[in-house]
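Colleagues,

Please find the record for the three-part complex below.
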Amino acid sequence: MTATTPATEPALDFDRVSIAFGAREILSPISLQVGRGEFVCVIGPSGCGKTTLLRAAAGFVAPSTGAVRRAGGVVSGPTREVAFVFQDYGRALLPWRTVAGNIGLALEAARVPRAERQGRIDEVLQTVGLTAHAGQYPAQLSGGMQQRVQIARCLAQRPEALLMDEPFGALDAMTRQGLQDELLRLVAEQRLTVMFVTHDLEEAIYLGDRVVALRIEPTAARPSVAAVIDVRIPRPRDQLLTREHPEFLRLRRELYQYLGHH
Amino acid sequence: MIGKARAFVFPAVLLGLLETWARTVGKGSDAVAPPSAALWAWAGALADGSLLAATGFTLGSAALGLAIGTLGGVLLGTVLGLVPRAAQAGFLSIEVLRPIPSVALIPLAMLVFGFGLRMELSVVAFATFWPMLVLAQAAARQVEPRLLEVARALQLSPGERFAKIVLPAMVPRLFVALRLGVAIALVVAVTVEIAANPHGMGYTLMIAQQSLDPALMLAWLFWVGAVGYAVNAGALWLQRRVAIRMGEAGLR
Amino acid sequence: MTRRLDARTLASSAGVLAGLLALWWAASHGDWVSRVFLPTPEATWGSLAEGLGTGELIEFSAATSLRMLLGWGLAALAGVALGVLIGASAAMRLWIGPTLEFVRPLPASAVMPLAISIFGLSGGMVLAVVAFGAMWPVLLATVHGMASVPTQLKEVSAALGLTRTEYITRIGLPNAMPDILAGMRLAMTVSLIISVVGEMIASQPGLGQAILLAARSFRASELFAGIALLGAIGFLSNALLAVAEAHLLKWQHP
């Protein structure tokens, strides 16, 4: 079990964060730091609380003990500096606004001056490759494109951190792989900090700098955090080559056990 | 094309049977007349202006009553849907007042307004107020929760959240409710005219019966049916257009 | 409206209702609105108590309720029977369906003049129109319910070799049950409305006639008492049906 301490102030600091719903403890106290520009993936079996952890980082859920800290202060509620990408993209987009309109919502919320808005929308559309679809409605787009719109809206917030909750889970394998590479590209371009929840072990290793594996039904003897492992595979990553890399295969074997298989 | 034509076969057969029966066995009846005579009577009513006058009155009072009932019902329903405490507080009062059949208010409206437009539109307003309230409340409560989380994530103010997310999300459902409201408004308006108000289509229908003019009575009956059908079809069309515009209908 | 009736809701809404009653009291006593139109709550209560005491209002309520229930019962039977006939056959739905859709928006009260021509101004006329008007929601709901049997169930029926009757009773009707019950609730509402209108027009004994006469004689407290009773009938009939519906559709919410 290795963990690296970032050299500069962490983007996200989980300070002995535990979360319980009523009498049930979902997450036993977790201490974890996500450094600036780091890509941390969180994996675990269903019900291990990985989404809950992400939502606590976003401020949707308050920890039962401990605190999530960001930029020196405690996270007490959602802020625009942290962008959240939902898995059910269809329900997170406004069906009555065009692609451009959906992205514009983030700018309206941030009180960006009208004159600046179009420029920023165009910028972000170009980053996700949807310039040609600016005037279309979400219902006219494929699943992959809708998810890119959601990501684009999040990028328009110019966030410090991007929190992603199984964003590619509802997509077919080919679309997923394409979006994985697109995500890596724009994260590198914009030097974003990312916390990425997924149930797909290979996706976690492919994308991440570090992988955090969580356990279901934590006890004192077996706390929520089962493992935090560095992914020492060089970037840029490649769908074919990286997945055959010996380190990739080793990590896959090592982390397999943490997904609830026995 | 064939499909559309097929819809007319059954009614054509029925009308043919009625025509034959009315001209033979039922000849001279006070109750039924041949459809051909009814058509002639309809043309007469159109020519002397009574058709348009009566139709205009019924549609006008229905529309005005619907407007008032919708305005009140949607406003209150939206508040109740968005503010759970208000919904709790209003529960008993609504459950007590809602079951009152709108027709029970006809004598009261007569007492207060006498006969005419105001009496009719007030009954229509009462009748449409409740369904619009209930449906608006449901629409406000059923805004996609994920969108409300997006509003939180973007730190939208309550006013922004209402204007940019809640209200647009409610619009398609409100137009579904409006379609129901339109149907109720027309039915109640005609009913008020049949029961009491000496104006509009219901009244002319009663007069035709009292004058023992079965052809005119049949004509008015069919005309009321046709107007009802057209108005409902219009409301359905509007509802669909709005749904598409607001992205509810799958466009792929 | 599914809302759990907890103590908090009961308390706050009882408070609001009491507030409205107080408003009524103030408005009538303060003559904000003429007493001709708005009787005091006590006067209304007085008329109600008196009418029930002499048995007069009980008679009227019973007459209206009986008319409503009888008409509704006939309508339910006819509606389901015809609905099954039309709904079970795709061909019937194809040829007759559009005509049904045309008749759907027709106000039931519009056939009252025709019924008067045929039956005269009588209780039978009112009953006929009630049954006719209340039949349509049930008929249309039954047709819709029978038509919406999932294809897989139809295939199961064919595979099991069910006869037409068995298909209707074991698959078609149960599948249509939620729709039919909803239609029956709507039919009850229609039934009450037409009963009241019929009583008004045909001078048949009942609450409808009673409130019309009360209005004509400017007896506002009697008018309000009658309206209250009609509201109660509407509430009770709907509530009973809702309970029956919940019981019959238990399988939807295990």
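Confidence is low (pLDDT under 50) at residues 1-6 of chain A.

Comments are welcome before we finalize the supplementary table.
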